[in-house]
């Protein structure tokens, strides 16, 4: 996650990646964040959509050219013959001009959470599960049984 804008959590990716294709087919996500040492996790459910081309271009222009070169040179999550080829593609891309021009296949996704579950594990297995859910234009709080 790179940006929080109002109710939106924004991250960036290659729009040709598997995850981006999944989002196009089903615009809902669930994210689970777990902290082992604290025995706590947060589950987030959200609707997701692409950010605008203008937003993507503006953000890409501000990024470091080395990050941009990697975004341009990589067909994210696609098979490639070797790691050496990954490095060669990257180094070749660094020689290009206009490394601040956002490619059409790269951009952001904004997800708007409508569900947060805060889980706190206990040795007794009587785990605390506190939920905040956005329904009917309001955040509702309730407890789930373990």
Q: Per the principal axes of the C-alpha atoms, what is the gross shape?
A: elongated
Unreliable stretches (pLDDT < 50, length at least 5) are none
Estimated radius of gyration? 19 Å
CATH superfamily of the largest domain: Electron Transport, Fmn-binding Protein, Chain A
Question: Kindly state the mean pLDDT as a whole number?
Answer: 94
Helix content: 25-40%
CATH fold name of the largest domain: Pnp Oxidase, Chain A
Query: Given this structure, which CATH class of the largest domain is correct?
Result: Mainly Beta
Q: In terms of topology, how is this protein built?
A:
Blueprint: E1 3-5, E2 8-14, H1 18-25, E3 28-35, E4 40-50, H2 53-62, H3 65-73, H4 83-94, E5 106-120, E6 128-135, E7 138-144
Antiparallel strand pairs: 1-2, 2-5, 3-4, 4-5, 5-6, 6-7
Helix pairs in contact: 3-4
Structural account:
The protein has 146 residues and is of the alpha+beta class. The protein has 2 domains: 3-63 and 104-144, Roll (Pnp Oxidase, Chain A), CATH 2.30.110; 64-99, no CATH class. Helices cover 27% and strands 40% of the residues. It contains 4 helices and 7 strands. Strands 1, 2, 3, 4, 5, 6 and 7 form a 7-stranded antiparallel sheet that branches. A hairpin with a 7-residue loop joins strand 5 and strand 6 (128-135). Helix 3 crosses helix 4. The longest helix has 12 residues, at 83-94. It is elongated. The two termini are 29 Å apart. 10% of the residues are buried.
Summary tags:
single chain, 146 residues, alpha+beta
